[in-house]
């Protein structure tokens, strides 16, 4: 009953309560984002949501306009404090974890929930039916701004572990578990823990 009705109801009510604060933050931050490189204030990221539906996830833009074209020498994306794509204002809003606030609009639209597996990036040519059982199971619920694995580990664990924790959440969705995840998320954000994988930390320390 919670997952089918009350979770969605809480998402709507909390989003409406948070909306004035979110709009205020956007009004304050938006001019700084635009003035730094005259680019768009928002970044629309294509994501795969519940039951495989593709949607646009709203974020405050924290990187330069052509960020998707800037990669490491091996063509991998950056995931460290030395990411050259992040703008000055982007670095600040990331530290304060407010770049994700516009996702409240996604929650109101029904694309997302406050709590759920992290929304995945759709791969060109890969349809929902092409996904394996684990990948499909993650999509049984709406993706969230934060989730079980993200709240505890953020970016410090690998893809397989993240999927394992996401599947656990899908099987155990409850009001109590969502409350715990909110508490863990606040704790992790405030302490700035588990921002990078072990491999990223080794590169940052000059071990590779």
TrEMBL record:
Lineage: Bacteria, Pseudomonadati, Bacteroidota, Bacteroidia, Bacteroidales
PANTHER family found in the cross-reference section: COLANIC BIOSYNTHESIS UDP-GLUCOSE LIPID CARRIER TRANSFERASE, UNDECAPRENYL-PHOSPHATE N-ACETYLGALACTOSAMINYL 1-PHOSPHATE TRANSFERASE-RELATED
Keyword Transmembrane helix: yes
A GO molecular function held by the record: transferase activity
Secretion signal, residue range per the UniProt entry: none
Residues covered by the Bacterial sugar transferase domain: 7-190
Transmembrane segments: 12-34
Keywords, comma-separated and alphabetical: Membrane, Transferase, Transmembrane, Transmembrane helix
Pfam families: Bac_transf
Protein name: Sugar transferase
Superkingdom of origin organism: Bacteria
Similarity remark: Belongs to the bacterial sugar transferase family.
């Amino acid at each position: 009953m919670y997952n089918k009705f009350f979770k969605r109801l809480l998402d709507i009510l909390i989003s409406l309560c948070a909306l004035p604060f979110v709009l205020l933050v956007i009004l304050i931050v938006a001019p700084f984002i635009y003035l730094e490189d005259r680019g768009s204030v928002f970044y629309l990221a294509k994501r795969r949501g519940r039951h495989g539906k593709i949607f646009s996830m709203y974020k405050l833009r924290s990187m330069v306009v052509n960020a998707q074209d800037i990669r490491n020498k091996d063509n991998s994306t950056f995931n460290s404090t030395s990411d050259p794509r992040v703008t000055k204002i982007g670095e600040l809003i990331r530290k304060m974890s407010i770049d994700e606030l516009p996702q409240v609009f996604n929650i109101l639209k029904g694309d997302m929930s406050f709590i759920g597996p992290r929304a995945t990036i759709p791969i060109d040519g890969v349809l929902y039916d092409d996904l394996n059982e684990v990948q499909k199971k993650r999509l049984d619920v709406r993706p969230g701004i934060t989730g079980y694995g993200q709240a505890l580990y953020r970016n410090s664990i690998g893809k397989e572990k993240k999927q394992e924790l996401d599947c656990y959440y899908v099987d155990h969705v409850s009001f109590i578990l969502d409350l715990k995840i909110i508490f863990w998320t606040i704790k992790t954000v405030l302490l700035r823990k588990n921002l990078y994988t072990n491999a990223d930390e080794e590169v940052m320390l000059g071990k590779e």
